[in-house]
Structure formats: structure tokens, C-alpha cells
Amino acid sequence: xxxxxxxxxxxxxxxxxxxxxxTIGADDIAAAVAVMETGVLSAYIGAPGPGFMGGPRVRALExxxxxxxxxxxxxxxxSWTSGLIAAVGAIGIEPxxxxxxxxxxxxxxxxxxxxxxGIPVFxxxxxxxxxxxxxxxxxxxxxxxxxxxxxxxxxQSADMAALRxxxxxxxLKLISDSAQAPGAMVGDRPAGTxxxxxxxxxxxxxxxxxxxxxxxxxxxxxLAERLALIRNHGEVxxxxxxxxxxxxxxGYNFRMGxxxxxxxxxxxxxxxxxxxxxxxxADRLTSALRELPGLTPPYTPQGLTNVYYVYGMTLDxxxxxxxxxxxxxxxxxxxxxAVMAGYQxxxxxxxxxxxxxxxxxxxxxxxxxxxxxxxxxxxLCPVAEKLHAETFLGLNLCLNAFGDADVDVVAEAFRKVWxxxxxxxxxxxxxxxx
Length: 434
Ligand SMILES: Cc1ncc(COP(=O)(O)O)c(C=O)c1O
What we know:
It contains 16 helices and 13 strands. The protein is α/β, with parallel strands linked by helices. The protein has a domain at 26-270: Type I PLP-dependent aspartate aminotransferase-like (Major domain) (Aspartate Aminotransferase, domain 2, 3-Layer(aba) Sandwich). Helix 1 runs antiparallel to helix 9 and helix 2 runs parallel beside helix 9 (258-268). Pyridoxal-5'-phosphate (PLP) binds next to helix 3 and helix 4.
């Protein structure tokens, strides 16, 4: 006999909120203080000279990141949003060019494309990994396609081999938004390093962070040079008059400060430990939840590792006879933290549906440069839309510590909800949470 659900007035299974995930230790604090004591909080100069590439902490972070991820170049930026904008600019996109990306991401992936008057084209996702579906990408390649911008959603790599194949056959660049997947592996290569340009977010919620920041990675010398120019007012240092050298390098300041760089360098040394703790939590959760009927735990394809920024599940709501939103509501009522009922569908945001980016006239979609009409709205990405509306259930693992005891009590809350499915089925519809 199980106790009644907290949703229906029963005792709450997790009465005290779980501890937040805190990543800052004495070593991070010491690193920040050491920078303060120098009095030089940023050593960048937006002019020709040694200061153009940043100060000693920025460079040390870049050297450590290049070694850690096994790439020729790592460039620190003040956010991964800045990194994405720099990446799109660096590949030499022209106004009206298209970049194929995924609707299941944070908005910055798609808006980075708009920064250069490019047109985001959304390909549907795979129902098991939630990453971009290469077959949908291939179907959307047009004469205007310039690149594929894949996202390693929730902590595991998109199918980079298939995307690379498409990119090579159509002469496209491949960019990887690995914001959520630092430390994830594709065979023996780190996620983020299989694209022409990839990189990671260092914002507060990520595995490793310095408040705000990002790291770009590339093996391509020319792209690295262009990224560095876009990062720091490149227009003032370029002597060439060639259009292809000057293009897309106008007026940005994406420079990371010395304090953030010093913290990020310490954080980088903790990546292994953070990844291991997330994987341990996720594996423990999976052992418990895989017995629940109608629930599919995260799926990781052969050869990949998942670093579990989010623990992403799907529900067979037909078999369960209860809606995903109602199950999420019941879990939240039991005190399960960070329950996600759905994720994002960027193609359904008002800015995209109404095609309003610059001014009110629909630019860049309505500009003469954009030779293909692209519209956004329901039906464009049916797999992503159904997952978001009905079947995806996530746990935002990045928000809480999720030690063994936390995982066990969360699993217990799931079991309690599953033991009370009849009561949920019989109950009146409950207000849905997005
Ligand atoms: C997939 C993805 N792309 C881009 C970003 C933007 O990164 P930042 O917050 O560092 O600008 C995020 C941040 O959450 C993200 O998860």
C-alpha cells in the first residue's frame, strides 16, 4: 500500500529541497583573488600589438583548453553566445545564406545565424537522442546552404560522422554547439572537436563555469585567425583590402576578462570529476527507473559518452494512460527538483514565427539577398514538437548536486508516482506546466 500522492494531499516524499550544485571551491577563489591583486582585470587591447590576443590568464586558459581537448587552437570568449556568433561569422557567411540547425537548443544557436543576416533552417530531431536528424538535414540542403550547426544536446554528441558526410558532399562547413557537452566523447575524440569549429559554454549552469564565458576550438589556422579578429574589433588591425578578409569582422567585443579566465582554468582541471559525478548519478537513476513501465531512460548510441547536462527520458503516454504534464506535476509535488516537461522548439518562438529580427520589416528573411522563402511554425519539426508537447520528461541534472542519497530519493518519488498511476488517471485534469 503506497501513501497518496502529494498532489492529492498526501505526504511529500522530498520535504526538504535538494542541495544546489555548487562548483566554486577555495582554489577558484584564490585564482580570482590573485588576479585582483595584480590590478589588471583585462589585458586586451583593441589595436595591433601583443594585447590584441588577451592577457596572461586568457592565454594560459587557451593553452590548457587546447591541450585538454586535443586541438590546435582554443579561444576564450566572454560567453558561448559570443562564440557562436564568431563561429558563424568566421566561416564567411553571406547575407541570405542558410545554416541548418536544430529546434532543440538554446535560442542563441539560431540567433547567432541571424547576426550575419543568415537564415536559420530547422531540421527535425531524432526521437531517442533529441539531436538533429541527419536525414532531415540532408533533405533541407539548398543552393543557399552554407553550413550545418549541430548541437550536442543534453550532454552527448550529435551524429557527427553522418553530418560530416553530408557537409563534405555538399561543400558545407560544420559547426558544433557543444555548450552542454564538455568532456563527452565520440570514440576517442572529445565532443566539440569533430566540427570545423566547436566549443563550450562556461556559464553558471554548465559542468565547469566562470560565471559567464565560452571556449571555441578549431584545428583550422585560418578559422582561428578569423575568430580572433571577430572577437576583438578586427576591423582595426586588418591591413588587407580584400573583401573576403574584411567580411563579418565589424565591431564586436567578445573578450574574456582575466578573472574569468583564471577561474575557468581551475575549473577545467575539475572537468573529469564533474563528468564522473554526473555519469554516476545518471547511471544510478537509470538502474532504478528502467523498471518503470512506459518510461524510457536516456539513450546513448554506441561509441558515445553522455555527460548528462540533462537526464532526458521519454514516456509512452498512450500505454500509461496519463499525460506527461500530469506526471511531471505529480513528481514536482513530491519535491523532485528541476523536472522538465518538454524542452524548446525554437522554430515556434514568436521572433521566428513572425520573422522579426532587425527592425519590423522582416529582415533578413525579406531582404533581396534571401532568395528562398523560409517560414516557421507548427508542423515544421513534428518529432521535436511531439516530444515537447507530449512525451519528453527531463531532469535538469545541472541544477542540483545529485549525490547517491539524492538520486535514491528521486527514484523513490518516481516509484511512488508510478504506483499511483490509477489515481492520476482518474483525477480531473490538472493545470499543465510548460
Ligand atoms: C546549447 C546551448 N547553446 C548556446 C548556449 C549559450 O551559451 P552562453 O550562455 O554561454 O552564452 C547555451 C547555454 O545554455 C546552450 O545550452
